[in-house]
Amino acid sequence: MFNIERWQEIFDTIAKNKLRTFLTGLSVASGIFILVILLGVGQGMQNGISQEFEGDASNSIWVWTRPTSVEYKGLNPGRFFSMTNEDFDFIHKTNEDVIEYESSRVRIWNSVISYKKESGNYRIEGIFPGFQFIENQSMVSGRFINQQDINEKGKIVAIGNKVKEALFKNDEDPIGKYIKLNDIPFKVVGVYIDKGGEREEEQVSVPSTTAQQVFNRGQNINNLSYTLKPEKDFETAVAKSEEFVAAITTYLKNKHIIAPTDERAIGIGNSLEQAKRFYSLIFMIKAFFWWVGVCTIIAGVVGVSNIMLIIVKERTKEIGIRKAIGAMPSSIIGMILHEAIFVTAIAGFTGLIFGLILLELLGPMIKTDFISSPSVNFNVALTTVFILIFAGAIAGFFPAWRAAKIKPIVALRDE
């Protein structure tokens, strides 16, 4: 039941010791405040890392070649080699059950692309239809490269939005218009945007077969790109991607006479492996943040316990009088516990509110590559406060129990 006299006693005690109560509450509030801020930063780091992987499909795998670094079967290190259409076809046939999207890539750098009087230097990508999904590209207008374009080796092109803005002035619709790629006319069939950013929109895409024929690349390709079919959980997806990468690496090394120990000749970019490393790092950082925050809160709770011990010492004679006139031990315990819980609760909620307000105000202003929209789960923060209040009750119980055991005659003699 609500006991107004007990609450009056609590407020009277607080009023008599304003500075001590304030400093005790400040230590508790700062613990919750620091924990909320640290959890918010940890979540912001996770958001930032997730956005970094949005540029391409989250399970994408890229394969490219570099000069060999190990002598093998009489071939000197430093040897250059190129992947071919045969490699692309073989990997497709032997891994068709796990591949979701795939594309070879023929790159023509610093090409002059022009329309009427406008021109600029951009990159030409010879690709397959699956490249749109691997690169996370969305069509603004028109369509992307399709399989018929590949089969017919059509001179058609899908252009990035930045190319469109540079070449087509006054909002002119580029669909159906002809632009020149190194003085060769191509018909524009689509305009796309890329989640990877504006740099990825400063390029144009043509059928891979067309790029090889028109720009004299023969059967050579610059790299391979894939996404794998979704798995039931993240760990299984990582394991499947590692198996796929191992199979590709083994095949290419055997096909192109590369030493099994040569770690440089074949470059592999596996977004799932990179994500696993980053998320493992984020998990450790978050665990460290929790540890720091919890330690700060424990320090505050210990402070509450110490203050309660001091209060019990100061009120020893009062407690003796209460017991002498018939106060039950439970009444003495309740008196001390109420004050401990009250101070802990008020301080805890104050720290929580200030932490959430700071994240709400400053979070949107943080613009870095690896921290985005720092926030904290309100339910988690609220649960932490209730745990803190429970800990405050425990911290106040032991001084209260000590007070309840004081004999009246001993308490009355206390100076």
UniProtKB/TrEMBL annotation:
<feature type="domain" description="ABC3 transporter permease C-terminal">
    <location>
        <begin position="293"/>
        <end position="408"/>
    </location>
</feature>
<dbReference type="InterPro" id="IPR025857">
    <property type="entry name" value="MacB_PCD"/>
</dbReference>
<feature type="transmembrane region" description="Helical">
    <location>
        <begin position="332"/>
        <end position="358"/>
    </location>
</feature>
<dbReference type="GO" id="GO:0022857">
    <property type="term" value="F:transmembrane transporter activity"/>
</dbReference>
<feature type="transmembrane region" description="Helical">
    <location>
        <begin position="21"/>
        <end position="41"/>
    </location>
</feature>
<feature type="domain" description="MacB-like periplasmic core">
    <location>
        <begin position="21"/>
        <end position="240"/>
    </location>
</feature>
<keyword id="KW-0472">Membrane</keyword>
<dbReference type="GO" id="GO:0005886">
    <property type="term" value="C:plasma membrane"/>
</dbReference>
<dbReference type="Pfam" id="PF02687">
    <property type="entry name" value="FtsX"/>
</dbReference>
<comment type="similarity">
    <text>Belongs to the ABC-4 integral membrane protein family.</text>
</comment>
<feature type="transmembrane region" description="Helical">
    <location>
        <begin position="288"/>
        <end position="312"/>
    </location>
</feature>
<dbReference type="InterPro" id="IPR050250">
    <property type="entry name" value="Macrolide_Exporter_MacB"/>
</dbReference>
<keyword id="KW-0812">Transmembrane</keyword>
<dbReference type="InterPro" id="IPR003838">
    <property type="entry name" value="ABC3_permease_C"/>
</dbReference>
<feature type="transmembrane region" description="Helical">
    <location>
        <begin position="378"/>
        <end position="398"/>
    </location>
</feature>
<keyword id="KW-1003">Cell membrane</keyword>
<protein>
    <submittedName>
        <fullName>Putative ABC transport system permease protein</fullName>
    </submittedName>
</protein>
<keyword id="KW-1133">Transmembrane helix</keyword>
<dbReference type="Pfam" id="PF12704">
    <property type="entry name" value="MacB_PCD"/>
</dbReference>
